């Protein structure tokens, strides 16, 4: 059965470009972005790995660690690193799992037989410090991912974990948010003394004074 939101992310031990990763131990009290690649030395993957490396400081701000995966062997990963740095202008600065035995891919449902029975699809998992799966995305092998969107959703998850709000369509940090419908107006007044714009009883927009 495919992993669903709220499930505990499976633990694993697997070799990587930074040595053996014991996943839950490696994660510690951080968030994680675990994302898979169909294979090494492929053009779309090369651009993605370079982008995640460039975004390291943004992930660091969010207490988030990136970790990639490909089913090719570790020797290929190390050889590929040079191509990534040469073509993308940024070297790999996070671990890339060498899942040659497909043990991690199988646990996380990264191989979709109707797409390809040997290669991983472009899966993304956001995992919180409690080791819970909070977001899943699946892209076809031909489409590169938008990591700005992944950062955006990470911001939303971290905000809504701590505030009684939800984030509307296309929300970005600093935009107005929605007061969750489960809060009465009386309860909302205590949490949001700045007030809100009540477009409908269930749609109350406010700006967080944070």
Concise overview:
It is built from seven helices and eleven strands.
Explained architecture:
Keywords: Antioxidant, Oxidoreductase, Peroxidase, Redox-active center. One of its GO terms (biological process) is cell redox homeostasis. The active site is at 45 (cysteine sulfenic acid (-soh) intermediate). This is Alkyl hydroperoxide reductase subunit AhpC (Peroxiredoxin). By secondary structure, the protein is of the alpha+beta class. It has 2 domains: 7-143, Glutaredoxin; 163-206, Antioxidant, Horf6, Chain A, domain2 (Antioxidant, Horf6, Chain A, domain 2, 2-Layer Sandwich), CATH 3.30.1020. The chain is built from 7 helices and 11 strands. The strands form 3 sheets. A 5-stranded mixed beta sheet has the order 5-4-3-6-7. Helix 2 packs across helix 4. It is elongated. It starts with 12 loop residues before the first strand and ends with a strand.
Class by SSE composition: alpha+beta
CATH classification, class level of the largest domain: Alpha Beta
H/E element sequence: EEHEHHEHEHEEHEEHEE
Radius of gyration: 19 Å
Number of helices: 7
Helix content: 25-40%
**Main pleated-sheet profile:** 5 strands, mixed
CATH superfamily of the largest domain: Glutaredoxin
Element layout with pairings:
Blueprint: E1 13-14, E2 21-22, H1 23-27, E3 31-37, H2 43-54, H3 56-61, E4 64-70, H4 74-88, E5 96-98, H5 103-107, E6 122-127, E7 133-139, H6 147-162, E8 165-166, E9 177-179, H7 185-191, E10 197-200, E11 203-206
Parallel strand pairs: 3-4, 4-5
Antiparallel strand pairs: 1-2, 3-6, 6-7, 8-9, 9-11, 10-11
Helix pairs in contact: 2-4
Organism: Kushneria avicenniae
Protein name: Alkyl hydroperoxide reductase subunit AhpC (Peroxiredoxin)
Family: Belongs to the peroxiredoxin family. AhpC/Prx1 subfamily. Belongs to the peroxiredoxin family. Prx6 subfamily.
């Amino acid at each position: 059965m495919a992993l669903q939101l709220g499930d505990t992310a499976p633990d694993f031990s697997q070799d990587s470009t930074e040595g053996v990763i014991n996943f839950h131990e490696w994660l510690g009290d951080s968030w994680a972005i675990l994302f898979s690649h169909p294979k090494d030395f492929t053009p779309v993957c090369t651009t993605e790995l370079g982008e995640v490396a460039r975004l390291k400081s943004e992930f660091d701000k969010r207490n988030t660690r990136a970790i990639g995966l490909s089913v090719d062997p570790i020797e290929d990963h190390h050889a590929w690193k040079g191509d990534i740095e040469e073509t993308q202008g940024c070297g790999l600065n996070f671990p890339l799992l060498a899942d040659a035995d497909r043990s991690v891919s199988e646990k996380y449902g990264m191989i979709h037989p109707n797409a390809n029975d040997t290669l991983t699809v472009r899966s993304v998992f956001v995992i919180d410090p409690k080791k819970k799966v909070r977001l899943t995305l699946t892209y076809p092998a031909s489409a590169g991912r938008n990591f700005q969107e992944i950062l955006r959703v990470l911001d939303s998850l971290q905000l809504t974990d701590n505030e009684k709000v939800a984030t509307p369509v296309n929300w970005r940090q600093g935009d107005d948010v929605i007061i969750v419908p489960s809060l009465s107006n009386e309860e909302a007044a205590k949490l949001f003394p700045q007030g809100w714009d009540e477009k409908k009883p269930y749609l109350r927009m406010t700006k967080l004074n944070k």
